[in-house]
Sequence to fold (459 residues):
Amino acid sequence: MARTPVILVLDDDTKLLTEIEEIIEAQGWIARCYTTGARALEAVRDDPFDCALIDITLPDLSGLEVLRLMRTQFPLAPLFILTGDNYNVENAIIATKAGATNFFSKPISQHQLVQSLRNGLETITLRLDREYLMNLTMQSRGLVGQSEAMRKVYFLVQHYVGLDQPVLIQGETGTGCSVLAETLHALSHRKDGPYITVDCSRFQEEELAQEIFGKCGDSVQPGLLELASGGSLYLDGLHRIGQHIQARLRRYLETGLFSKIGECEEQHADTRIIASASNELKQAVNEGRFQRELNMKLHTFSISLPALADRREDLTLIANSFLRQAGKQLQKPFTGITAQGELYLTTLSFPGNLRSLQGLIQRAVALTPFSTAKRELDEQDLHLAVVVDTDDLAPMAPGHGFREQVELFKRNLVIDALARNQYNMKKTAATLEIGLDNLCHKVKSYGIDLDELRKKQES
Fold:
């Protein structure tokens, strides 16, 4: 059931307050009425609202001051000013700068009031729905965080999703550039149109030019720019494209026109360009390998994704997000990571950023048996996931040799397979692709007590 909208009304005229309250409640909304600015500001600390009507003249505070304070606390809420006959254009400009959505002159038209409030409620609902969808989309792929760097990313995404202009995403490998690009498309008005990606590093320049713009001659081949019309084209690794493609891309961004490779006439495409580049782009511009004008054009709307090392305060939040995903995929609903496990994560480096952390959590979930007695990942679980990854150079935990870790890894694999097969030895042997005699030998040599494991799972 949808929540009933709450309208805050602030005016020292009690007769007018009663009239407005009746109008609001007749629409099925809730009216919260106050006669002083101080009382209203105190009330909204605990009781938020959806829209507000604020009288410009109050007995204790300036209506503009109340407006400024409420705008700071409720940046999305529609805030309407109630004015008298003597309210002039200059005052209206001041109020608009302070955050006023619109104005009502007294005496108030009931029709105008209801229509404006209804429009305001619809606007904030759309804004909140888009913000919720944005956060949900980003969080499901690991782009979560409460750090200042990520709050800036959220702010920019919220404002860029509604644009048709190109967006440049800059970040190191594994920071989530492709995820962010897909999010920008998924939340835009182009979401029902095509979303096509191209890895610029996979092609030689001539091949890439034909891939993006198409070619003509004996056989006409449409390019991705044309095929993505009505949607978005994501150029991954923009800093790698050559001068010829740069010139064509700049032409398209400035005019909306492009031509296929060969002797072809220019044609129009309605495709939004989203591109990503590493920090090498700046060096390419300085060395003259990338057009400065094109770089400036793309930088008009740009988003920088921070490396994981630059937002360590988000590490636990991200790790738990990946844990929920991995647990769902592998049917192991771990509830979280222990305090010691979280502390251990802070000692690691993640050269691949989010990709490295996600891989670590996925391995830890896969290698750790889940039971009612084992609902959280701990330091040993995470360390084992580090050890079995030969590409990770994190040091061994004190007192744990490599052979010991490998044997522990094998033991956990057997225990996990047993649990998934309800401790049926024959099915477990088939799962591990080993003989039944071999499995019996491993169970004995690893000191695995089947009866004890069954009891733990049942408890």
Observations:
- The first strand starts at residue 6 and ends at 10.
